[in-house]
């Protein structure tokens, strides 16, 4: 989560590093999906083959527009998306290393890249991990900004 928070901040969004909440992304239409939904502690990727058919069927069914794919296991599913942004995995072991032709997660501006794709359809994701409440601006302050 630390590296994800760093990259979100580098793209100009707000995070609350005291928690790992990403549920605000879901409200923005983001679906979070690991390539394996179970794991054996200390044996990363060992269950990927168990979940491969499920993941393929799910992605075929929902036909996602944009995929933000982190690491080799995720990049293997690129063909299920209309457009992709791919980087290395954000884990401490991979966040600084490119993967194949794709950049390292940290410094990739991947959240910004997704928004560049989405802007073609006049939309975007607010990648904040903290809820903000906005108070209406004082009309006199608004007038000053316009002048």
In a nutshell, what does this entry contain?
The chain is globular and about 60 Å long. It has helices at 2-10, 23-27, 48-62, 72-75, 110-118, 139-146; strands at 66-70, 83-87.
What is the fold's blueprint, element by element?
Layout: H1 2-10, H2 23-27, H3 48-62, E1 66-70, H4 72-75, E2 83-87, H5 110-118, H6 139-146
Parallel strand pairs: 1-2
Can you put this structure into words, describing what you see?
With 147 residues, this protein is mainly alpha-helical. 34% of the residues lie in helices and 7% in strands. β1 (66-70), α4 and β2 (83-87) form a beta-alpha-beta unit. It is globular and about 60 Å long. The termini are far apart. The model has no long low-confidence stretch (mean pLDDT 90).
List keywords for this structure.
two-stranded parallel ribbon; 2 strands; mainly alpha; 147 residues; 7% strand
Secondary-structure element order, as H and E?
Answer: HHHEHEHH
Shape estimate: globular
CA-CA gap between termini = 43 Å
Q: If strands are numbered along the chain, what order do they take across the biggest sheet?
A: 1-2
Q: Which structural class is indicated by helix and strand composition? A: mainly alpha
**Helix proportion range:** 25-40%
User: Average pLDDT value?
Assistant: 90
Low-confidence stretches: none
Annotation, overall tally of beta strands: 2
């Amino acid at each position: 989560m630390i590296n994800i928070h760093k990259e979100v901040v580098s793209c100009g969004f707000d995070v609350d590093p005291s928690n790992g909440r990403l549920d605000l992304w879901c409200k923005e239409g983001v679906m979070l999906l690991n390539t394996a939904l179970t794991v054996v502690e200390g044996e990363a990727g060992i269950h990927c083959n168990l979940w491969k058919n499920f993941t393929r069927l799910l992605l075929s069914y929902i036909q996602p527009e944009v995929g933000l794919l982190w690491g080799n296991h995720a990049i293997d599913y690129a063909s299920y998306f209309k457009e992709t942004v791919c980087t290395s995995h954000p884990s401490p072991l991979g966040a600084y290393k490119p993967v194949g032709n794709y950049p390292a997660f940290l410094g990739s501006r991947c959240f910004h890249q997704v928004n560049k794709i989405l802007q073609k359809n006049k939309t975007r994701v607010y990648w904040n991990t903290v809820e903000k409440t906005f108070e209406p601006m004082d009309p006199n302050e608004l007038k000053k900004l316009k002048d």
